[in-house]
Amino acid sequence: MRPRSSRLKRPLVNSRPRNMRYPLDAALRPCLGDFRDALEAAENPGRSPYIISDVSLKDEDAAHAYRELAAASIEHHGGCYVVRDGKVSVLEGEWRPRMLVIAEFPSRDAAERWYHSPEYGKVLAYRDAALDRNLILVDGVP
Fold first, then answer.
1. CATH no. for residue 71?
2. Of 67, 107, 121, 129, which has the most beta carbons under 10 Å away?
3. How many structural domains are present in the chain?
4. Residues of 24-47 as b/e, b for ≥16 C-beta within 10 angstroms?
5. pLDDT by residue (tens digit) across 39-87?
6. Backbone angles phi, psi at 115, to 5 degrees
């Protein structure tokens, strides 16, 4: 048996430089769902896309059903609400949104998959009775 000092030693820590690792804090945020989206978010930190909806309610009961089903479908696709039914104060301009809803997604692909998903397709029947809205998808800044 060889003396202990001559044995090949394995490094105790990862030998890659610290700046070569993924920023895992972005990948571990609670609104991330799908592993593929978590990897994309880790590779592009700070680039979360947002679905922004300017909403006018038509029927409160239908809106309640829509909110519950839409929230479940957003969560299923890795999204989470950033703003939901918050107070809106106009500071400049002519835009007078009545109610804003903002949902954050881990990637643009995840947001588009949510919008075109069968789960959300079922929710759209409630939307038509519940509300009128303008809806956009926008990328966040790095």
1. 3.30.70.100
2. 107
3. 1
4. eebbeeebbbbeebbebbbebeeb
5. 665 665 667 999 999 999 999 999 999 999 999 999 999 999 999 987 8
6. -60, -35
